[in-house]
Records
---
Amino acid sequence: MCGIIGIASRTEFPSRVLLERLKRLEYRGYDSYGFYDSRNLKKRVGGIDVEAAGRATTRTGIAHTRWATHGGATERNAHPHVSCDGRVVIVHNGIIENHEEMRKSLEKKGHRFASETDSEVIAHFLEEGLKRKPAEAVIVDFFAAAAGSFAVLAAIKGREEIFALKRDSPLVLGAADGMNILASDIYAFSDATSRAAFFENDEFAVVGAESFRFFDRKGRPIEKAMREFVWDQKESVKRSHKHYMLKEILEEPAAVERMLFSMENDQKAAFDGLIRLIRGSKKIIFAACGTSYHASLLGAYYLHRTGVESQTLIASEFRHYANVDRDTLIIALSQSGETMDVIDALKYARERSGRIAAVVNAPYSTIQRMSELSLHILAGQEVCVASTKAFINQAVLMLRIAREFGFPVDTDNVAGKIRLLFRKKARIREIAERIAASKDAYIIGRGLTYPVAREIALKIKETSYIHAEGMMGGELKHGTIALIEDGTPVLSLVSNNDPDIISNAREVEARGAQVFTITNDGRMERKRNVIHIETGNDGKFGILAAVAGQLIAYYAADKLGRPIDKPRNLAKSVTVK
Ligand code: AGP
């Protein structure tokens, strides 16, 4: 949540570059944005307009795109925030938990606040400290005084460098030609350099155009190694597609092939390592949120079918439900690798000596670095806030892992089957547009199609704003069936003619529901309300049904004219609790 960027350059550059780079982080939040280029400070509500920078040039600057936590999405609350005397300008991602207390104490010293945000205290705190001490020493004081999470970039009058502080919110430094770039994630600069230094917790750096110095929270210098990272650029361009979401769904076959190939080749050692870790553990607990949680539910289902003791917990509730000891393996699933709830669950597991493995999409992320072993799903950049191709790669990887334990499946033709399904786009679109006419929709599944039902419902909610519930078919009659009216759309996921889910669909149909079916029963193929999936394998059926559901969500949202790639109130990387 929130994206921050800072550039220190040897030569003058157009200030709009700050906003162009910031735009690459816009999926982290888009309530408001702002920048400071050492002369101009501008803030606006809404999505980033790079023209806002005008023709100005600069050698240093900081910028911020906001996902509001404290204080509404107004210009006043937009970053950067400035101290009273204008000497300190900051941008912040995270939450300063003790901001009220810090604010009161600064107000007593005469500071006047201009916004309702927690972040503004940082600017005032630094200004107050600078009256007596050099910036580095004031930052040491800030680490001691502040509670919560923060990635902060600060510009201080009289100093050419940018000051960068990190605790629990992501921050990385990229060394490009003639400039150093600070950002919330590597995507901000992955087109300009593949060399980066990752901040660990409670570290800060003083960053100039051609040099940087890292320190620990006590101000002691630390050595920081630059790392080479690999991040595919080609896939982050929308080209002729109307939306990134559709583009990213259509990339799924290639992404699946790339990942499966990698598991047999460059990631073979890590893949085998994870299999050994699973075999050597008494129980497996997945920890994940949102879409990644649904993929982990599939993982738990597939493994459970092979006799491996496994469960999954929503990361934000992990500490309330998990029983972790040294024989427990926690597998974190996360597209971004930065989700705060997952990081928190892993901290809890670590305190209890649990072993930790991760499955991530973004390389060198915090979650990966917290794990003793990690696999990359190689889905490529997802620009659309709603995750699609990462989910498919997570799910296919879960299936591939389960195959090692005896789950009967050939994963090699999954990509081909997805391509076949794409040929049915016209039918899928027709069904989606009928669903788009309702304000509610229900998606029902059983066993392995239950997680898929939940994922399809989440995609529909996120992108089309239709209220959608994904649920166990068996639970309908225990209450939710009361909501079924004449014409209510119910999408039923029927693998291998499962008689129980077929009965559940009949129960709602008898009460007037408009039933749509995703099935692998060839006899149903020509029926109007049916999407036919060509696979006899139920493991693969779930994944293919999810692809069909993603397309339903996309076409429904498109029909309704929604801002599909950047839905209201959302951010792709959820770095607050
Ligand atoms: C996906 O469409 C969502 N926007 C969201 O649920 C997401 O899956 C969740 O926040 C977890 O993110 P992660 O995979 O990066 O950890």
---
Amino acid sequence: MKEHWWKEAVVYQIYPRSFNDSNGDGIGDLQGIINKLDYLKKLGIDVIWLSPVYQSPNDDNGYDISDYYDIMDEFGSMEDMEKLLVEAHQRDIKIIMDLVVNHTSDEHEWFEKSIKKIEPYQDYYIWKDGKKGAPPNNWGAMFGGSVWEYNEERNQYYLHLFSVKQPDLNWENPAVRETVYEMMKWWLNKGIDGFRMDVINYISKDQSYPDGKKEKGEKYGNGAPYFINGPRVHEFLQEMNEIVLSKYDIMTVGETPGVTPAEGLKYVDEARNELNMVFHFDIMDTVDVVSDKWEKDRLDLFKMKDIINKWYETFKKQGWNSIYLNNHDRPRMVSRFGDDEKYRRESAKMLITFNMTLPGTPYIYQGEEIGMCNVQFESIDDYRDIETLNRYQKEIEKGREQKEIMEEIYWASRDNARTPVQWDDSENAGFSNGEPWIKVNPNYKKINAASQQEDPASVLKYYQDIIKLRKKKDNKALIYGNYQPVLEDDKQVFSYLRKYNGEKIFVILNFFGYNWEHNLEEGIIDYNHLELIISNYEVQINKKDTNFSLRPYEARVYRVK
Ligand code: GLC
Ligand code: CA
């Protein structure tokens, strides 16, 4: 297996709006990030993935970009960005930026000129005539409504897979691609270290734009089969790789909702020259009812094991994966996969162990390192996310009970992950001296970074330790090692071996809030050859004991001698 720095890296995602506010306007900013670089260095991360910081009217918190060459006023200036790069690099921390090029903001100059058919922008977006006064087809948009919005001035409809204020770029147009590549080079020449590519598998659309299948009771059809992994997506990415990516020593990760392992491999196969890795959504979907993220499902460990297996088996020869258990679009991992009350610490540490020992590059989402939890605001007025607000409106219009809708929001809203990072127990959790743009989770007095820095039993301390462990030279198996499942038929415990050049690491995780007992005489674990390297509990090693037991959410990592 080829060694690369981005395979060995631990990545930390910053959602700048909620990270740290340096000037008291209630909004996180670039200087706020600079102020926390030493904290991140101490955590042990190598790369920061910065969610969008470009100029934006913030319809979708920066994922609607109005100028790729400028910084959002609220976040600071280009000088601040340059300072952040210098300060991060001085600490040996790399920075990758979010590349959002499936769509722009409708306030982007390109779009304004496109409406007016000013060249070369006339065909920069996807414009179609209506069908007898109706939209060109029946597809529904990700944030509600039709994907088509009529523009009076141009007397045509434009396509937007996300909000009305996020028109999709027309990748069929070579001038669009060239412009995007130019912009990417501009940033890379500034010294950034790569890109996380937003919904990159949506950029190529089936040019016949057929109607999508309609589920019963739904107003709109499902267009996904016509834009997920569309006909020219690999051609476009190979072109991008040839013209831009291959010219720099960088890392790339594509966000690819709805990909299967076989499709995922096409994006990352080393022989195909596209991307380094993708974010697939399969692990996320294990606790949601299939295809409806608003509905909760019980964690089925067999399903999870199956997913890890399949992706590993498909990628092991010539691909590389990414591992994450939450991000700015997904609720907090400890609330989703663990127990955010009784066993918050234990389950957070167990999930951290999982994140740091599976094959692939691990991603930490801000606040994960201190075990931050989901939030439950009483009023919908305290929510900010466009997806949540649109969904609430739509369900109210359907006549559903408000209480029921709020329950779903508590489970699935993206704002669960977007409450401010809890730095200390002072007002607003030390995030801001002003009024935060979104309320702080009321549990910040109990859960915050400052108190955890001092506490040897804290989630933060555990994260620092396990990252250190991962980086030790004799633990390369955790990075490059192959993956071999153990106890596959156990529905409570997730266990595996990682092997590399004679090194062997054994991981065993109790995924549930009750004890687990195993008779060692069954021969699966040879206890005499295990040396414990980390655990989230105090472990008494008693070699004569034939009963191997794990406490609620217990995690252990052993070196096999
Ligand atoms: C991606 C982003 C999400 C955003 C969407 C549209 O899924 O992660 O936050 O809303 O793309 O840009
Ligand atoms: Ca600020």
